[in-house]
Design brief:
heterodimer, A: 260 residues, alpha/beta, Rossmann fold, 6-stranded mixed sheet, 4-stranded antiparallel sheet, B: mainly alpha, 2 domains
């Protein structure tokens, strides 16, 4: 199988291209002319301070926000993503920082929210959904038992695994993970890291938003760094050190550039 | 994602009888409170409270508020409120009253009591209610005006639209067929009530049986057989007992005589006839079943509860929460119109004050029935039971002879206390 690096070297069409994306909120440019791309089986880290615009950029791709200008291409074709349903129809799945779970519903209802399995008469088929939910949770988090309780009764890690299950169950091609390990303990963080490796091997492209430079160095192939809504630069992880990334985040300069 | 290593289903260690029966403890509490209330009033009134006659009256008085309360569950579950239901009921009632006493008989020249009058009036009324509800929902969902404000405005607007349409006059008598929806003027009689009761029992048992089979098909845990049998017996007993009580209320002999006179017949000496199930109660039961199916088994219901639990999550899951708001308020409007049919038919006319204070009764019924104002939780049966408790409290106090101001003071205090008990209960069981 060709690695993402080789694909890039061959000039293959990326599975996602976001070109010159701008988003403003009431006159403030949250994202200013930013371009990023993603190849199959690649993990691209998005780094930056709080408010650097990385979540906003990625919410344009997941359909939660509308961009003011720019274009999104999936496998080379220009697409319109105006709501989360559009994104899902392009096999783009998102794990939000807030997890976006309905606390009052059980795991299966959350897993299938918006895409329920229905019976021939159009009624929701809870039994089938619970059974599917048990299957996927058996792979992701074998210790998960609370299938008939609202997700508010679950621990942080269990809630996270429900959110992850929702993203990977529906054959995602493009996965967006917004700080997936923020609420997790060391053991669960390790689980997520392993999952990312698995998904990569299946050829899924992943945008990983993270604060933790160390995690990005470990998991990503490339990193795009943002500051004040603008793209500082995109680098190959192999070519940079932790300190290089940190200075991109803090000072907003690419490695090799002189500090302004 | 077709891995077959499924999660093992752990056998749960059932601790007590209630858990084995898988009964909702909250529901049991409400039923318990209701039974205590009924027995209490019955003792104080020397047995006048629990007579077939009073139970019949209680039932038909509850219907109008209970129908609207089931719609209010959806409204409150989605974190909204509707203060306009009483006023909307009045407008729908006025529209229907004018349709059947002015528009059809005089303007269109069909004359009084034409066979199509009642159905045209009902359709016009239901359409009016649904449209006004949808309009409220559009303002709330798409124009993002808070529901409190939209329906507070609606409270004033629709109350007075009704007034303007009727010049504040009492409009009546209504169409004779239309009045069968009111209660006493439209009952099934004993034989049909028994037949319907038996059919309902059979259906209920079938539902229990099917849900057990569906669980077994997926290897999910099921109740022990004895628990299923107990449930079946309780449900059958409740349905048939209810039919028996309503059948036991005999139509007063004077009234029966008049009914025979109306048909040009003479009443046989010593004849007695039970009322049986009122049609308005059948409407309520149908509404309860349909609304429960919507809540539990349709995507619409799933989205209503998901949106109530976490509006952002619902939106991010691709649910069109704006359209959902329109749908929820349309359902509410439709049910207000349906209540207007029942309420005006019961009174045999449209009066200017019809539905006054109903918004508070409806909200109180839903809230006493366990609908959380913070959204995401609520049941249809709870709201209907809440309506029944409120109505019992009110007519029980009237029967005992409690002064009117004290009646309202008690109802208000009970509402606050019920919500407090609910909060304590939810904290205990760890639910949100």
């Amino acid at each position: 199988m060709t690695t993402p690096k080789e694909l890039r070297a061959q000039g293959a069409t990326p599975m996602v291209e976001m070109k010159d994306i701008s988003v403003s909120f009431g006159g403030i440019k949250a994202v200013d002319q930013v371009s990023v791309d993603l190849h199959p089986g690649e993990v691209v880290g998005l780094l930056g301070h709080n408010g650097a615009g990385k979540s906003t950029l990625i919410k344009v791709l997941s359909g939660a926000y509308q961009m003011d200008s720019g274009e999104i291409r999936i496998n080379g074709d220009k697409v319109e993503i105006t709501n989360p349903r559009d994104a899902r129809s392009h096999n783009i799945e998102t794990i939000y920082q807030t997890l976006a779970l309905a606390d009052n519903l059980d795991a299966a209802s959350n897993l299938f929210l918006g895409r329920e399995i229905v019976t021939g008469t159009g009624l929701v088929n809870d039994a089938a959904m619970e059974s599917e939910c048990r299957k996927i949770m058996g792979r992701l988090n074998p210790n998960f038992r609370k299938f008939n309780e609202p997700v508010s009764a679950l621990s942080g890690g269990q809630r996270q695994s429900v959110a992850i299950a929702r993203a990977v169950y529906f054959n995602a091609r493009i996965l967006i993970m917004d700080e997936p390990t923020a609420a997790l303990g060391p053991h669960e963080t390790q689980m997520v890291a392993e999952l990312i490796q698995q998904l990569k091997a299946q050829g899924i492209g992943i945008f990983l938003i993270d604060h933790d430079v160390h995690a990005v160095m470990q998991l990503c192939d490339r990193a795009s760094v943002m500051k004040n809504g603008q793209l500082v630069g995109t680098v190959n992880i192999e070519d940079v050190t932790d300190d290089d990334l940190l200075s991109m985040i803090i000072l907003g300069k690419k490695p090799g550039e002189e500090a302004a | 994602m077709t891995d077959t290593t499924s999660q093992p289903i752990t056998p749960q260690n059932k601790r007590n009888v209630f858990q084995q029966l898988e009964l909702d403890v909250r529901l049991l509490g409400m039923i318990g409170a209701f039974i205590i209330l009924c027995i209490g009033f019955n003792l104080v009134t020397d047995g006048r409270f629990l007579t077939p006659r009073n139970i019949f009256n209680l039932t038909i008085q509850t219907v109008s508020v209970a129908i609207m309360a089931s719609g209010m569950v959806f409204v409150i579950v989605t974190r909204h409120i509707d203060l306009s239901v009483g006023a909307l009921l009045a407008t729908c009632s006025a529209v229907m009253a004018m349709t059947q006493t002015e528009l059809l008989p005089h303007v269109l020249g069909l004359g009084l009591n034409h066979p199509i009058t009642w159905i045209v009036a009902v359709i016009v009324g239901l359409a009016t209610g649904t449209l006004i509800g949808a309009f409220h929902g559009w303002m709330i969902g798409y124009l993002t005006i808070p529901a409190f404000i939209v329906t507070l405005g609606g409270f004033l607007v629709w109350r007075n639209v009704a007034w303007y349409m009727t010049d504040g006059q009492t409009i009546g008598p209504l169409d004779s067929t239309f009045m069968i929806f009111g209660g006493t003027n439209g009952t099934l009689g004993t034989t049909f009530s028994w037949i319907l009761g038996l059919i309902a029992t059979a259906l209920a048992l079938m539902v229990l049986w099917n849900s057990r089979r569906a669980k077994l098909a997926h290897d999910f845990p099921v109740k022990p057989v004895w628990a299923e049998i107990v449930m079946g017996l309780v449900v059958s007993g409740a349905i048939l007992g209810f039919v028996a009580v309503l059948n036991a209320y005999d139509i007063p002999s004077r009234r029966l005589e008049r009914m025979f006179e109306a048909k040009g017949q003479v009443m046989p000496e010593g004849l007695t006839m039970g009322y049986g199930l009122p049609i308005s109660v059948l409407i309520l039961i149908a509404v309860a079943i349909v609304m429960t199916v919507i809540a539990r088994r349709t995507r619409l219901g799933r989205y209503i509860f998901a949106t109530g639990g976490n509006p952002d999550a619902a939106e991010l899951s691709g649910i069109n929460t704006r359209m959902l708001t329109v749908k929820v308020f349309s359902i509410m409007g439709f049910l207000c119109a349906l209540s207007a049919v029942v309420a005006s038919a019961r009174l045999a006319n449209h009066s200017n004050d019809i539905g006054t204070l109903d918004e508070l009764r409806v909200i109180a019924a839903a809230v006493i029935g366990g609908t959380a104002l913070s959204g995401g939780f609520g049941t249809i049966y709870g709201a209907i039971l809440g309506a029944l408790i409120m109505q019992s409290l009110q007519s029980g106090m009237a029967m005992v002879g409690v002064d009117a101001p004290f009646q309202n003071i008690v109802v208000g205090a009970v509402l606050v206390a019920a919500v407090f008990i609910d909060i304590v209960y939810r904290k205990r069981v760890g639910a949100k």
